[in-house]
Design goal:
Layout: H1 3-32, E1 39-47, H2 58-75, H3 78-87, E2 103-107, E3 113-120, H4 123-140, H5 146-182, H6 186-222, E4 227-231, H7 244-269, H8 276-283, E5 287-292, H9 314-327, E6 337-341, H10 349-362, E7 367-371, H11 379-382, H12 391-394, H13 417-422, E8 424-425, E9 431-434, H14 443-447, H15 450-461, E10 467-471, H16 480-488, E11 491-497, H17 503-514, E12 520-528, H18 535-541, H19 549-556, H20 564-575
Parallel strand pairs: 5-12, 6-10, 6-11, 7-9, 7-10, 11-12
Antiparallel strand pairs: 1-3, 1-4, 2-3, 8-9
Helix pairs in contact: 1-7, 3-4, 5-6, 9-10
Length: 584
């Protein structure tokens, strides 16, 4: 995409980015306004015995890191959280699940440590919850079996008892040694030496027994996945407050970023032909005209005709641009006959054809508008005409031979009589309409008949007809438009709804004609949103026209429509006759 595409997207979606940033920033501000300050306290736990070992190996470190995830998951269990709530004063009545939002545990990567961090509004309770969480985790942590726990407890008790007895014997030994040094009685000295020997023997036995129980205790402890508190949580003194300004800015940026992601997704997935640039790139056809959306869906057909709009309005300018591009791109072979179709129904084909016919007639051209949609005809409703006779009437009769024509006869008199019966005048000078007539059972065959060829030749050779516009059915629905274009050897104009037609539908519609060797002259981009076009195009739309309340009122009132003569006079003043081509 080039720079102009990015500029177009920025102009198109800037409102969404701003709105998303405003909403996200506002929600962030509201959620954080009045938020009380929070305190943090942490407990440092050691996993296993690597910290107590003089030469820990790598496997101990690796196992400790793996076990940390188990302990973290264990801390999130309902039982542990329930025990914490029951043990900490002040948490009575709180649901255990509440702790899940304030307790966070994480391993310290590359070590055998893990931390339990608590964030809460009360500093004393923050430290108490952290310490109690460590205690409950130690109690619930996996360890020795029941028999091994009893042996470990017995060994530790024996070590404690023997250590006390050992201290008592050492005290008795010191006393005996002092008596030996001060005693002069030989008999008493012999007794003291014997006592000293007995004490030393008992000390050796106690020392050996203590060593055995200590080794047994160490062996059992080395086999356990024990947790040990290395640093308890302290009551925090510094509160953590929310910076409203920076938090709001971050929230707004996140909202804008999400909006950008959504925009990119929409633009990537959106395959609707929304602009002239996309139409040219997708279809490889020139855009002859880009028409803004006319009126509302609830408006009547007649209220959406171009002569209801001021001469310098964007709608009128769009149709004049279409007329100019179309007339100056016409070759001699197919001069004056155009088949206008669309890929799918309800893309504004009939209304676009009608307004193009009006614009050409106002430029001084003799225009015949034919309703060849023999399935869902609309032109008689748009121009409020009778539909008793029309195209099907002509297609069931040969063109009459006009005899005794003189140079003084009018162009109307030179037309076949049965053609004059089917031509209906409109309120726009020089614009005549041939409605569909009755609905046949075989419209495709009728439109491809030799009679259709002869009538098209009659239109081309008639001096009173400069332009023939044929409104045909949607291309992808039925084969009528392709058959008609081949029969009439006419140029094809493809109407694309800028808010509806998908790229695949446009490509298939073009291929229907190219496969038959028929040329699609160009694209008419209908119901255009100016924001989807480039800057230069939308700027030209707003260059001339400034609506006034009076003009708007006339445009909205179907009964106060300007008459065709005033429209014609104003148009001739504005455009002159420079757009009128030479007649055949």
């Amino acid at each position: 995409m080039d720079l102009s595409t990015y500029i177009r997207l920025a102009r198109k979606w800037a409102w969404l980015v701003v709105l998303a940033a405003f909403i996200a920033g506002g929600i962030t501000f509201i959620l954080n306004t009045g938020t009380p300050p929070t305190y943090q306290a942490s407990v440092l736990l050691a996993i296993g015995n690597a910290t107590n070992s003089g030469n820990p190996n790598a496997s101990d470190m690796q196992i400790a890191g793996q076990l940390a995830e188990n302990y973290i998951r264990l801390l999130r269990t309902y039982e542990v959280q329930q025990n914490i709530v029951a043990a900490v004063p002040g948490l009575e009545g709180f649901p255990p699940e509440f702790l899940g939002s304030i307790i966070f545990a994480s391993p310290l990567e590359g070590t055998t440590f893990m931390t339990i961090t608590v964030s809460y509004v009360d500093p004393v309770m923050t430290a108490a919850i952290a310490n109690e969480a460590a205690t409950q985790l130690i109690l619930q942590a996996p360890g020795l079996s029941a028999g091994e726990q009893q042996r470990l407890q017995f060994a530790n008790e024996q070590v404690s008892q023997l250590t006390v007895q050992n201290e008592n014997l050492r005290t008795l030994l010191d006393e005996t040694n002092q008596l030996i040094q001060t005693t002069t009685n030989e008999a008493a000295l012999v007794t003291l030496n014997e006592r000293r020997t007995a004490i030393l023997s008992q000390l050796a036995q106690f020392t050996n027994t203590i060593a055995q129980f200590t080794q047994q205790s160490n062996d059992l402890e080395q086999r356990s996945n024990k947790l040990e508190v290395k640093e308890a949580a302290r009551i925090p003194t510094n509160a953590r407050t929310v910076n409203l300004f920076s938090t709001t800015i971050v929230g707004a940026l996140i909202g804008a970023a999400l909006a950008l992601v959504a925009i990119i997704s929409i633009e990537y997935l959106d395959d609707v032909i929304r602009s002239s640039e996309i139409a040219v790139q997708t279809l490889g056809l020139p855009v002859l005209g880009a028409i803004m959306h006319i009126g509302k869906r609830t408006d009547k057909y007649n209220d959406r005709l171009v002569y209801n709009y001021p001469s310098m309005s964007p709608v009128a300018e769009g149709y004049r641009t279409l007329r100019t591009n179309l007339l100056f791109s016409t070759d001699n072979q197919n001069k004056g006959v155009y088949v206008i179709t669309s890929p799918s129904p309800e893309e504004g084909k009939s209304m676009t054809t009608s307004n193009l016919a009006i614009t050409m007639a106002l430029a001084g051209l003799q225009v015949v508008l034919i309703d060849a949609d023999l399935r869902r005809p609309k032109l008689h409703e748009i121009f409020q005409l009778e539909n008793n006779v029309g195209l099907t009437t002509l297609l069931f009769a040969e063109p009459d031979v006009v005899e005794n024509i003189s140079a003084a006869d009018s162009d109307e008199a030179k037309l076949p009589a049965n053609l004059r019966q089917c031509l209906q005048n409109t309120s726009v000078p020089r614009l005549r309409v041939i409605t569909s007539g009755f609905i046949p059972s075989n419209p495709t065959e009728i439109l491809g008949s030799s009679l259709m060829q002869r009538w098209i030749a009659t239109f081309r050779n008639s001096p009173g007809i400069d332009i023939v516009l044929i409104d045909s059915p949607p291309t992808l629905m039925v084969a009528d438009s392709t058959v008609l274009a081949a029969t009439a050897k006419a140029d094809v104009l493809l109407v694309i709804d800028a808010g509806k037609t998908r790229r695949g539908a446009g490509i298939k519609a073009k291929e229907r004609f190219t496969q038959l060797g028929l040329e699609v002259k160009g694209v008419i981009l209908n119901r255009l949103n100016p924001r989807d076009e480039t800057y230069e195009y939308t700027y030209s739309y707003g260059y001339y026209y400034t609506p006034t309340p009076k003009a708007n009122q006339r445009g909205k009132n179907g009964g106060s429509r300007r008459d065709a003569k005033s429209v014609e006079k104003q148009t001739e003043v504005n455009i002159g006759t420079t757009s009128q081509p030479d007649k055949e």
